[in-house]
Amino acid sequence: MSNFILNLIHRPEMVPEYAEKITGHGKKENIEAQSLLTESLDIFKLQQNIAHKNGLKTTIQMTYASLFNDEAIQIAKDDHNKYGDEIALSLLGLPCKEFREKYKTKDFCIWMFSMEDKKAIVNDVFGKFYEVFGFYPISTGSYYLDAELINYIKEKYPSVICAVATCWEEGPKAYRTCNNSWYTIFDGGPWNPWIPSKQNTHAPAADETEDSGIVAIPHLSRDLLACFDGNGSNFGTHPQNVLRGMIYKDGKYPYLFNLIDQYRHLEKYNGGEAYNMVFVGPGWMNKAGRWEVPYEMSVKSYEDCMAYYGKLKKEGKCIDMTMAEYAGHYRAKKTYTTPECALWKDILYGSDKQLFWYSDPFMRTCVDMNQGGALIDLRPYAAKINWPVGIGTKHVQDASYPFVVQSLYRAGYFTHYAGEGTIRSLKIHYQGEEADLCLCRTRAKFSQNGNTRSLTLDPVELEFSDLKLTMQTVYDFEEGASAIKTTRRILSMSKPAEVEFDEYITACYGTTEYPEDMTCVTLSVKGNEGEQTINYNYKCREALAADALYASAVIDAINTRIDFEPSGKADAYIREGYAFSPMFTLGLKKKIGEKGEFVSWLRLKKAQ
User: Fold this and answer.
1) Which is it for strands 162-166 and 139-141: parallel, antiparallel or unpaired?
2) Of 594, 573, 203, 546, whose CA–CA distance to 430 is shortest?
3) Taking 80 as the threshold, does the pLDDT of residue 418 lie above it?
4) CA triplet 587, 203, 340: central angle to 5 degrees?
5) 63 is in which domain, residue-wise?
6) How far apart are CA 492 and CA 461, in angstroms?
7) 345: which strand partners?
C-alpha cells in the first residue's frame, strides 16, 4: 500500500472568487444576486459529485456566507453521513451581506485585518458554525494564517487540529503577474505539511514548547521548480492552475498528471511518505468560462483530475484522508525535526535542470544543480522571526518569511556590471585566474544514512589556461543540527598543482526585490590573532583572519546569526557591501591539491 496521501478540499463559496465580476459583468456590484448564489452552489455540488463518483472523500470547508444558506448546510450534513466527508470551516469566503453590514469593509483576507477584528471575525464565524452544526470544527484555514491568529484560534477553539496556513511562494512573482494587484505576499514557507511554531507560521516548531497545536497544510501543491522561477498560480496540482498557465493542447494536459506523479515520487526522499492536496474556490468553474477556457473544458479537467486520483486509490497507490485524519497521521509519523526533502526535476520545459529543496525547523534552502550546486534560497527558520501582519502592524500585506539568500529577488551569481547578488557557492583561484561553480551544470543524487540526508553532485570539470581539474560537491544535512555541511573534493588534476578554494556566501535580508537598511548588520571574523568586527555602513570594508574559527554575520532586523566555519586550517574573511550593492560576504579560503578536500559548515542561529 502506498503512502501517497491526498487531501481533497471543497468549499461552498457563495460569492466565489472571480465569479461575481463575470456573472455580473456590466452591472452594478451585487453580492446577493440570486444568479451568483445559484451558480456557486451548483459548482460546489458538481465538485462534490465528481469526487464521490471517483470514490474520494472530501473536507468541506464551510465559508461564513454558506453558513446562512440552508441548502449548503444540508449538503454538508448529507455528504458527511453518506461519504465520510469532514465538515470544516474556512476563513475564506467572508464576503456576504451579513459580513459587510457588520464590518463595513470589502477586505476579505483574514490575516490583513487588525488583531482586534481578527478575533471578532473568528468568534463570529466559529460561533455561527456551532449554531448551525452543534459542534466546533476540527479543521480550518485560509490562504495564510499568521501565528498570532493561529495561537488565538487554538486557545479559544482547542478542537482545531489542522489548518490550511499558507500558499507556497505566493509573493512578488504572483503580485507582478496579477497586474500588480494581488496584495498577498507570503513567500518562504514549507511546501509540504508542517507543524507551525507559535512564533511564526512559516517556521516549523523545533520542539513541544514551540508547537502551535495544529498541523498546517499548504493551500496548493505546486511545481517546486516552475513555481520558484515563475508565477506559482500557473503551476499546481489543481487543474485550475494548469489551465490558467495554458499548459494544455487539444484538450489534454499531461503536465498535470506528471506533476501529481512527481509529488508521488517524493516518497523516495521522505521515508516512504508523499503528500498532495487539491483546494481552490469554485469560481474557476463558472458558466462563463475562465482564462480563455470554456466551461466544458473546466469541468472536464476536474473530472479527469479526480478520475486519476480515483484510479490511483483503486490501485492501492493513493490514500484519501480528510484534513483531521491527516493531522492525526502526521503526528503519528513525524517528529519535530523530521525534514522535508525534494529532489525536483523540470517536467515542463524539457531541460535537465534540478533543484533540491530542504526544510526543517531551522532552515529552508534550495540547491540549484544548474549553477554547480549553489544555494539559491535560504530562510533562517532558526530565528523564529516574530512577524506580525495585518492592519496596525508594520506588515499589512507582506507576510513572507525573510530570506538571507534569494537569487531571483537579489540578483544571484550574475549582475549586469557591478556589485554582487545573494548566493552560496565556491570560487577556485589558480595563478591569477578564477572559476565559479555557478557556471558549471551538474546533476545530483539523494541518499540517507541514519539521521543525515546527503546530496551528492556529479563531478564537474574546470579548465584554467594550463590546468584541468575534476571536483565533486557533497551536501550533508544532519537532522536537528541547524547546519549545512559542505564537502568539496578534487578528484583529479591534469598535473600536480595547488589551487585555492574560496567558499563564500553573499547575503542580505528582505522579502522583496527592494533593499533593506543594512546598518543593522554586524560582521565579524575570528582567527588566531583575535576577532575583527565591521559594523555595516556601506563602506566596502574587508577583514581577513588566518587560522580562522569562523566568519559570521548578525542581522538584528531579523534576529539571525550566520556562522561560516572551516574544518582544519583555513583563512576566513568578511566583506561589507556598498549602496549600489547592499550585500555582505562571508568567506573561507584554503589551498588544496589533488585528492584534497575542504569541509565547511554554514550554521543558522537565533541572534538573541
Assistant:
1) parallel
2) 594
3) no
4) 80
5) 4-345
6) 9
7) 354
493 and 576 both lie in a single domain: yes
| SS3 (DSSP) at 396 | coil
- The predicted model scores a pTM of 0.96
- Rounded to the nearest 5°, which phi and psi values hold at 604? -115, 135
- List residues bridging with 555 in a β-sheet: 521, 560
Share of the chain above pLDDT 70, in %: 96
- Taking the C-alpha atoms of residue 558 and residue 529, their distance in angstroms, rounded to an integer, is 30
CA distance 107 to 396: 12
Cell of 112: 490583513
Q: How confident is the model at residue 289 (pLDDT cuts 50, 70, 90)?
A: confident
DSSP string, 317-377: S-EEE-HHHHHHHHHHH--TT--EEEEEE-SSS----EEEEEEETTEEEEEEGGGTTEEEE
Q: Are residues 293 and 422 in the same domain?
A: no
pLDDT of the residue at 30: 57
Same-domain check for residues 275 and 366: no
Measured between alpha carbons, how far is 27 from 34 in angstroms, rounded to an integer?
14
Q: How far apart are CA 164 and CA 144, in angstroms?
A: 7
Do 371 and 340 share a domain, yes or no? no
Quote the number of domains for the chain: 2
